[in-house]
Protein 1
Amino acid sequence: MNNRFNALEALLHREKILVETHEESISEFFACNVFTNQAMQGFMVPKVYKQVEAIINAGESLTRELADHVADAMQNWAMAHGATHYAHWFQPLTGRTAEKHDSFFTLENGKAIDEFGSSALVQQEPDGSSFPGGGLRTTFEARGYTAWDPTSPAFILDVEGEKTLCIPTIFVTYGGQSLDYKLPLLKSQSYLEEAAIDVCQLFDENVNKVHVTLGWEQEYFLVDAGLFNARPDLMITGRTLLGRYAPKGQQLDDHYFGSIPERMYAYMRELENECHKLGIPVRTRHNEVAPSQYELAPIFEEVNVAVDHNQLLMDLMERIAKRHKLRVLFHEKPYAGVNGSGKHNNWSMATNTGKNLLSPGKDPSNNLQFLTVFMSTIQAVYKHADLLRASVTSASNDHRLGANEAPPAIISVFIGETLTKVLNEIEKGGVASAAGVKEVLNLLAKVPDLEKDNTDRNRTSPFAFTGNKFEIRMVGSTMNCAAPMTIMNMIVGKQLREFSQDVEILRANNMDKEEAILTVIKRYIIESKAIRFEGDGYSDEWKEEAKRRGLSNNADTPSALEAYATKATVDLFVESGVLSETEVHAHYDVRLEDYALKLQIESRTLAEMCMNQVLPAAITYQNTLLENVTALKSLGGDSSLFVGQWELVKEISEYINTIKSNVYAMRVERDKADELEAIERARAYCDNVKPLMEKIRTCADKLEPLVDDSLWQLPKYRELLFMN
Ligand code: ADP
Ligand code: MG
């Protein structure tokens, strides 16, 4: 029995999966499964609704009494939609979502009733000990609590007709410490928004609310479920730990603009329908660069809602894929030799007056505000590049960042030609006079052409300005967007505070407002210059140049994560209120542990595959060759008759021996690493286990094309990438 051939056979007989088609337009069923304000209004008396709306909009907490009204409305709405259970839905540090379901049904004096009060809405207690806590829970208590986040609407998840009311929540310890990605994100958001309002008021007194916006772009691979199941590595680690590249990969560039295969198209249509029902505003779908790689992007939203939607999307994607007998690969590098997947985070801020703070306006004074936010962001990235880099690091993203693939591990900022010119002019110009200010304002009047300038984007930049937002391209495709978004909000929040103070000081010395603003901007332009780079980020020259500029190049997770351990980082987290000192250490520990565990699992899986699949196939084939050689020899003929086969036997032997000895050496290294803790353990996995995995892979990939195809048990790259 050969798993591979069974899977290939099954693939030929896959039935077409029917996708529900909607008669209505998207706008008619969009968000029908979301407890929107409108839905709430339908289940509440107008007076109460008005009170609730005002409080939620102001970001204040509801009284118990009002929370009871919300709970009632939510329950009635959910039950009217057929929901039988409810769940607190949260985002533990595993990076994915978790939920604990409870039924509305309960007994009251022996009588069956449906119940869901504000206490069930506001708080729940899932078993905290099943989630990573970086030592936080042992210090306090093993319990974890989830608490309702009213800024993100509840929704109904429909799994094969089973409907559950899901309530977005934060997840904390008994002592209130964050055990998730959501609470730090919410805190960073308020920290930034507060600072941004102050800065905006320098330009427009009508600004009294700013919100951070995020539009993510999710890249992913699809693979047939049968082929996936025949690969222990894909099943367990999400990537191929071995596998020789197919003769044809992406070199012909024929995938990107090709038509989407019918089977994948059906999947995407169903996914989009489900997204729309859940209020996820997905809009774009297309093929990506690598074969079997795709991308999906929504209309941008407020950052916390966008984060929830991305998490929910990943969940839906996996569930719907199963129905289509497909599997989604979110891993940053599922296949060697073809492009990996990222999750670009497009980040900006918008005001209550309807302005995008990173969009240059029509008049120069608007552009002064744009330039303030723009330069403060660049200055923040310059100062905290290491922390930003740390926020997107992981065992799986290490295969992208710095591994000769988009984008490099060096953080730099791309801004395009027009803005580079503007910044250069300001830098050269004498701002410190009324005439200088006027000159700069004239220059700024020419800025609005940006979007055109940036259509020619630099795809090699990890952090690019794209006309009206920054695109953070180094985020990994498996990652929770909240991690990098929290850091962005925090560092820019800090920088905008400094900006306000810097301007204040100059104005206290009687400097005119515009001149003071420009003087600070000019200083930021000069100070942060090293982070700006417009060239090819993949080139070796850039690595050299970046080193000369003093920019860090942390190519692996253990070194990148060190940014969390510095005093400056802890101070910043504490000052901004995003995390306490213990929480920073806990989050750092969780990330280190995650790294070591991922490598441990990969290394074990690889060892098993070698011993169970690769070596048996090689040895069986080698036996056939040997029998043949022996037979030919016994005929007493010329040795030239079997010399080729004999050489093959030797070549195969060599690979078998190298694989076997390295698999054993790898186990020794794993055991040694596992005796260490935290950073030392992560380092040992990185330095001692990972290189052995690469050695083993190289040999296995050399064996693959030597061995009889009919003996090879693991689906090959050409099948994984091209059969659909
Ligand atoms: P492309 O990058 O393919 O040219 P767009 O520039 O239109 O496409 O948008 C890419 C992503 O940027 C989308 O997810 C979109 O929602 C997001 N985006 C656009 N404007 C903003 C903004 N002001 N803030 C945050 N995200 C945005
Ligand atoms: Mg883009």
Protein 2
Amino acid sequence: MGKENGTFTYQEIMSQGVTWERIFQFIDTMSSSLKNWIKEEHLQTIFTGCGSAYYLSISASIIWQTLTGRISRPVHASEIWFHPEVYVTEDNPMLIATSRSGETTETIRAMQSYINKTGKEPLVITCSPELEIGSLTSRIMDASVASEQGVAQTRSITSMYILAQIAACIAAEKPELIEKIRQIPGFFQPLIDEYHPLAKEIASRTELDHIVFLGTGINYGLACEAHLKMKEISLTHAEAFPFMEFRHGPKSIITKKSLVVGLVADQTRDAELKVLEEMKELGATVLEVADGMDDLKPDYRIHLNTNLDDIARGPLYMPVLQLLAYHRAIMKGLDPDQPAHVDTVVKLDS
Ligand code: F1P
């Protein structure tokens, strides 16, 4: 008998709590080499990757700059490969590359360009340290416990996100924040138990055929990742925008068939809730994902209820949204394990 649709993806989404626990086992071994690396002279840090790994880079660079006070930015791996002169500048940047497969051509090429120009080893966060990426550097944060068989990244990207959070805490010498991040795995199962039925309920509303994910700052990277999951797994027209940008034109596409998902941050909540209110008035169905309670009357609400701050709680926005994409795919008769036209890794000939 053949495999049922989505077996791997479902199992990988649901095992995130235990996988995150296992990720923390490696912190002590990584910590001292990371500290030495961070001491090297540099003025800026560049985070890079492709697809999910690039979206992780958006959030990670904001966390890094907030915690360390040093300039940090996300750059697409292909940009570094094609334009090293623009990004690998004379001010000795540090490079942090993320890749589940460890073989994505653009990420490997970006690392090679960086190594050729600076003679320095990048730091990598990967599920595949034994592959090409690991042959280019000895500085590795190993997420192989989060490896996957599904094509779309679920537990791998949230686990690598946690490693990026931890790297920033080590760089900023904030061990107390690592202790907060250590609480994340404990919130996973209660969140799934409470909101898995809601994910199924929203997924059954197949008349909603346009899904917008909104987030500010750190949460913008997470909104981008959520939009990619929805697109890859459920072949739904999905988009991601910073909350405030959505008013500047993109909102014109909102109809009664739109679902707007707001990944609300504590720091910017008031302004974000006004955007969600406005989208509701325009006819969209609104799903609010927030840590605290507020006066908004969305159609649906996921209350994360962690009391963790915006920097610490990031990965917890993802699991219920991954389940929403998974169930939508199942409703549409698709196989979430095998998105159309996408392979696990993009390898180019030249
Ligand atoms: C990056 C990536 C994935 C995407 C797809 C193709 O892979 O773009 O984010 O979902 O599977 O590859 P990697 O460099 O993290 O292995």
